[in-house]
Structure formats: C-alpha cells, structure tokens
Design brief:
heterodimer; A: 225 residues; mainly alpha; Fumarate Reductase Cytochrome B subunit; 9 helices; disordered N terminus; B: 297 residues; alpha+beta; Alpha-Beta Plaits; 4-stranded mixed β-sheet; 3-stranded antiparallel β-sheet; 11 strands; elongated
Chain lengths: 225, 297
C-alpha cells in the first residue's frame, strides 16, 4: 500500500482539530470504485424491485417506464460486475478469514450490542466485513450468470423455459440476499461512527483504527494498540 | 383496449380486483383434428383479420410453413408423420394459444395489465403495457408467446377478442371449410366434442379423447384428438401444468414475504440505532505523541 505525504498533509485542515495525523484507509481509486458500485447497486435494486413485486412497479417511472427499465437493468448489472470484480480482486488477500475472524462471527450479536470488542489481532477488516466480502463475490456471480440466462432479447432465447424459470428464481433469491447484505453493510457503516468518513475522504483517526482494527493499527503506525 | 368496455377476470401483476361488473358466457373454440385437412385457411384468415404478414421463408422440406409461430404468425398448422400402432399416421394440428383457465403467462408477467383474462375465458396480451421481458414465454406450458424482434413486445393468438367482444366468431372459425373448427359456449363445445368422440370410436378410434388439460384448469381451445392417448404425437404436452418452479418464482406469498423481510431489515436498523446507539468514534491516542514515525508494512 502506497503511503504518502498526501494523506498526512493537512490533518487540521480536514477539520479534525487533532494534532495526530490521520491514517489513510482507502485510496482514492478504491473510494471512487466503491461509490460507483454503490450507485449501480441503487439503480439495479430500484429497477429490480419493479420486476420482483407489482407493489414496486412505480419505480419503473424513474427509468422512463417499464420497457426502458427492462432494457437498462441488465446493462446496469454488467456495469456493477465490471466495477466490482476488479475492485474485489485487489482486496481478497485482506479478506481471508482467520480463526480470530471466525471467533468474531460467533460474537456478532454481542458486537452489535456493544458487548464484544474487536480482538487485538483484527486486521484491516473484521470477520463480519470479510463474510460480507465473500458473500458479495458469490452472490454477484450468481446474479450475473442467472441474469444472462434471462436477458431478453440477446441471450434468453438460447435457453429452455425451465432453465430460465430456475434462473429467475435464483436471481430473485440472490438479489434478496444482496439486499439484506448491503442493508447490513450500509447500516454498519452508519452505526460505526468514523467509517463513513473513511469511505468518503479516505482517512480515519488513530483512535478509530486502534479501537476497530488493532492489528491494522499496529501495521500502519508500528505502535502497539 | 381500454378496460371499461371489457369484462376482465384478472390482470397480470395487479393485486387489486379487476373491473368485472358483468359476467359473460364462458366460450371455447373446438378443434376437431379428425376433420382437419390441413388446408391452412385458418392461418390465412388469421393473417387477414389481424393484418399480419410473416416473412416469406424457405421450404424446410415439410408442410409446416412458416416453420414456427412468430409475432406475425399467431396460429400455425403443424404436420407430423408418426408411427402409431404400426401404421404411418399423418397428423395435423392447428397450433396456437389454448387460452388456459390458469394462464402461466399471466402468472409470470411482471407488467401490470400487460396480460388480461376476460370473464369469457380469453387471455389477451395488451402490448401497450408489455415490457418485453419474455417471462410469459417461460411461464407458458405450451410454448406459444413470441417476442417481436422489431418492437420487443410479446404476441400470440387473441382468439379474436375484438371480434368475440362484439358477438362475432373468431376469423379462423369463420373460414374453416370442413367444420373442423367450432366456436360457442364452453359447455356446448364440450358436448359437441363428446358427440364427435362417439363417432370416432364407432369408426375404430378407440383411444379418441378430448384435450382440455386440467393441469392448467382447462382451456378455452379444446381439441378432439383421434389418438387421444398420445397427445404428444400432435406436439401437445401430455400433462401440462404450471409446475413448481413457476409457483416458487411468481408466488405472491414468497415475493410478499421477501418484500416484508426487506422492510424488516430497514426497520431493524432504525430500532437497533434507537436501542443500542451508535458505536462512537473514540478520541485519538491518549498519549498524543507529536509526530509518530510512519512505518510501512
């Protein structure tokens, strides 16, 4: 990870008012891609909902009507996948599950209730984030594959009605899992104060890093948390 | 077509009741395969009335022409050479929409009002609401609807709903020269079919049967098949039904549960925040060294 003068440059200027320099957590490209994926997801989700349940068919109006929504949805999906997978490919090493992470997942409920702290050897991501990472890697793959199978008029005619029905079921289930996963992800970012700043401006305070990712803190500062 | 003048049983992707102040007679088309001579007059009449012109194709080496249903060919004479009980049988079937009582297309359709079922039993596509997703094709147990390559709308036989709504018989019925096609109330058509069965059995077609598949709740196009024990020889599925996949996919219960759960996730987030409060960002390192050395991992 390249470091830099840049992110340490003006801690005071970014309004933190502390003497201690901030730690850079997400480089610029990562933030841009992350929000690119997020925007694609919002549009995909809104358009997919219209096809999933008539209760939400009104979202078609946001896309210029049903036919345009149906045309746009798969292209948005491809856009998301093209942004997500190169991004994910840069992060997989940091997301390998360790015994600590599995321990974290067993305490996920306690963590949500502030009864469990991230263990001292928590690296750049905690167990929950890593599981989120791998579930998105898997779920998006299923969504893209099944999406191609039902993509009219380009690919769907090549597959049997049974295949297309099965693909549509899997597509809906995966989209549901994705919504729940992303919902937890967004809420966790909102709940954990300081995280939103990490993904918008790229930097975090030392106290934040020490509390949530002691192992990463050690790696970044050379100090014991 | 606006709905106010029609008698609608149900509409696709619509959770509330359809306009159905009137009840109309349940109608059906009876296709007596034993009387059909394969002249294709019905095909021509369909093109004429609905003003359709399919592309001129090439001779594929058999009588079926064009070779498949399309957005321009809503009915099609299909010709089969089959070996039945040791003898060659030349079977002819007028293919097209069967207008199911439980239409898989309507169940699969995600576009409100793109597919409607009238109280007389006809299932019609309203292309102005069609979004071109092709779900109706996946949902149909008979492989009937076709997407147009030009406008990405789905098309199929309407059973001349425009004619029927003003008291006329469908164009194919009107033109059939051998009375292989009849149109009337479903009750009458079934009674007529029974008469035909008696006649056929007398002539030695002991397996003759009426094809009104109950797996889709019965249909509003009913066949008299001389070899009724083997409908698949005519290209008709033996026991068509909507199937578990369609039920899982388009089930109101599972989809509504999905939506409910998604709402629940959002609500859970709100309540969690109220109850537990945010995970506050701590103050910086307590000792506050002036400028710690940065070390790269």
């Amino acid at each position: 990870m390249a470091t830099t003068e840049k992110d340490l440059r003006t801690p005071a200027a970014v309004g933190h008012g502390e003497e201690q320099p901030l730690l850079r957590r997400y480089p610029e490209w990562e933030r841009l891609v992350h929000w690119g994926v997020a925007i694609a997801y919002i549009f995909l989700f809104l358009s997919g909902l219209a096809l999933f349940h008539p209760f939400f068919f009104w979202t078609a109006a946001l896309f210029g009507g049903g036919p345009l929504l149906r045309i746009l949805h798969p292209f948005l999906g491809v856009t998301l996948a093209l942004l997500f997978y190169p991004y994910a490919a840069q992060l997989w090493r940091d997301n390998l599950m360790t015994p600590t992470d599995w321990r974290w997942t067993r305490h996920a409920f306690d963590y949500m209730n502030k009864r469990y702290e991230n263990p001292p050897d928590t690296g750049k991501y905690n167990g929950g984030q890593k599981l989120m990472y791998w579930s998105m890697v898997a779920v998006i793959a299923v969504l893209v594959t099944t999406g191609v199978l039902i993509w009219q008029p380009y690919f769907a005619p090549a597959f049997s009605a049974t295949t297309r029905k099965a693909a549509a079921v899997l597509h809906a289930i995966s989209a549901f899992i994705m919504f729940v996963g992303i919902g937890i992800h967004v809420y966790a970012g909102f709940w954990t104060k300081g995280s939103f700043r990490a993904m918008t401006r790229g930097t975090v305070t030392r106290g934040w890093a020490r509390l949530h990712y002691p192992g990463w803190y050690r790696q970044m500062t050379g100090k014991e948390p | 077509m606006a709905l106010q003048s029609l008698d609608v049983q149900r509409r696709s992707a619509t959770s509330t009741a359809s306009p159905q102040a009137r009840k109309t007679l349940e109608v059906a088309k009876l296709i007596d395969v034993s009387r059909c001579i394969g002249c294709k007059a019905c095909q021509s009449a369909c093109m004429e009335w609905n003003d359709l012109r399919d592309e001129v194709g090439v001779n594929e080496g058999f009588y079926t022409n064009p070779k498949d249903l399309s957005d321009q060919s809503w009915t099609l004479m299909r010709f089969y050479e089959e070996n039945i009980e040791g003898s060659l049988q030349w079977l002819i079937l007028k293919d097209g929409c069967l207008h199911c009582t439980e239409p898989g297309c309507l169940k699969a359709c995600p576009a409100p009002g793109a597919i409607v079922q009238f109280t007389n039993g006809l299932v019609d596509f309203h292309q102005e609401n069609c979004i071109g997703c092709g779900y109706c094709i996946s949902g149909c147990p008979f492989n009937i609807p076709r997407l147009s390559k030009h406008d990405n709308k789905a098309y199929k036989c309407t059973l001349c709903s425009d004619r029927v709504s003003v008291g006329l018989e469908p164009a194919c019925i009107k033109t059939c020269p051998t009375q292989a096609l009849s149109f009337g109330s479903k009750e009458d058509m079934l009674a007529q079919a029974e008469h035909r069965l008696d006649d056929l059995r007398e002539r030695g077609f002991t397996k003759a049967a009426v094809y009104d598949p109950q797996g889709v709740g019965g249909t509003h196009v009913v066949f008299v098949l001389p070899h009724g024990d083997q409908p698949e020889k005519y290209g008709l599925p033996k026991d068509p039904h909507l199937g578990p996949l369609l039920s899982v996919w388009r089930s109101w219960v599972s989809r509504s549960l999905g939506v409910f759960t998604m709402f629940a996730v959002v609500v859970a987030g709100v309540f969690h925040y109220m109850k537990v409060g945010p995970l506050e960002e701590p103050k910086d390192d307590p000792p506050a060294p002036p400028s710690p050395p940065r070390k790269e991992a």
